[in-house]
Amino acid sequence: MSSKAETAKAKAIADLLRQQVFIGVEASNAQENAAKSGGQQPRRERLLNVISVMERDNAKGSGAAKPRLLCITVKRNRKLRLHKVKMNNTIAEISKTWSMDDVKAIEFKEPTRFSLLLNHKYDFSSSDAALVEGFVQMLVGFCNKYGIKPPRYINTVSGAPGAVSMGSTGTVRPKSVFNRAAQQGPQVVPPMPGYDPSRGQMDGSMAESQVRPRTQGRGPGDQSALMRRMTKYVADHGGDVSALVPMGMQPVEE
């Protein structure tokens, strides 16, 4: 199925869920009663993202994969939730619900396969890599911003602890995507605006306007801030952040 068809399918599923289960934080009593008349237990939550997946439960060993929906929602009190939903014909039913704090680890296995460590480890796969990336990107952002402790990131480009401590994971994608590109030849990352590699700092007015005041005039602090910016810039443009060498250190010769 093409990416355009997958996107249309995801939209249709989202519309169905909004009618039956996640009716919105400002839904009227009439909307709630309409959902209840269909045998549902509607929730006043806004649906933010949904992806259709095949689930394999690692705790139960090998077994047939089951079709499921993963949904991210928000309540009126701004509490975010991750739901696992199963479909019975055209009837949706919530089978599991977690908060962002329940997400302990996120791992990419392939561009279309990922796992989540919740109460135990779940493996999920989908047929569209772009939808997987978009869903995981949103989940990571919410976990970092609203979770008490960000989860561990495994086999992702910008899932290192340093990226999490900065409050952003940058670009979250499977490493395998970039590994394949590396085999095809080196990737060219556009030059960082205003950066003079011979001086190791920002040039002219760019330095004054873009370096945060708290890092100015602190020597090593300037270099650390610039290194963080360079790491995020390279990751966002599809480069290999593992090849960056901290300032003051010599690259390891092959």
Overall, the morphology is globular
String of helices and strands: HHEEEEEEEHEHHEEHH
Instruction: Give the averaged pLDDT, no decimals.
Output: 74
Percent of residues in helical segments?
A: 25-40%
- DSSP strand (E) fraction? 25-35%
Low-confidence stretches: 158-171, 177-189, 202-218
Query: What is the alpha-carbon Rg in Å?
Result: 22 Å
N-C termini distance = 44 Å
Which sequence of strands runs across the widest sheet? 4-3-2-1-7-6-5-8
The number of helical runs is 7
Beta strands, count = 10
Largest sheet: 8 strands, mixed
User: Structural class of the helix and strand makeup?
Assistant: alpha+beta
List the main descriptive attributes of the protein structure presented here.
254 residues; two-stranded antiparallel ribbon; alpha+beta; globular; eight-stranded mixed beta sheet
In short:
The chain has 254 residues and is of the alpha+beta class. The protein has 7 helices and 10 strands.
Layout: helices, strands, pairs:
Elements: H1 3-20, H2 29-37, E1 45-57, E2 66-75, E3 80-88, E4 91-99, E5 105-110, E6 113-117, E7 121-125, H3 129-146, E8 152-154, H4 161-165, H5 175-184, E9 195-196, E10 201-202, H6 204-210, H7 220-236
Parallel strand pairs: 5-8
Antiparallel strand pairs: 1-2, 1-7, 2-3, 3-4, 5-6, 6-7, 9-10
Describe the structure.
By secondary structure, the chain is α+β, with helices and mostly antiparallel strands. Helix content is 33%, strand content 25%. The strands form two sheets. Strands 4-3-2-1-7-6-5-8 form an eight-stranded mixed beta sheet. Strands 9-10 form a two-stranded antiparallel sheet. A hairpin with a 3-residue loop joins strand 6 (113-117) and strand 7. The chain starts with a helix and ends in an 18-residue tail after the last helix. Mean pLDDT is 74; it is low at 158-171, 177-189 and 202-218.
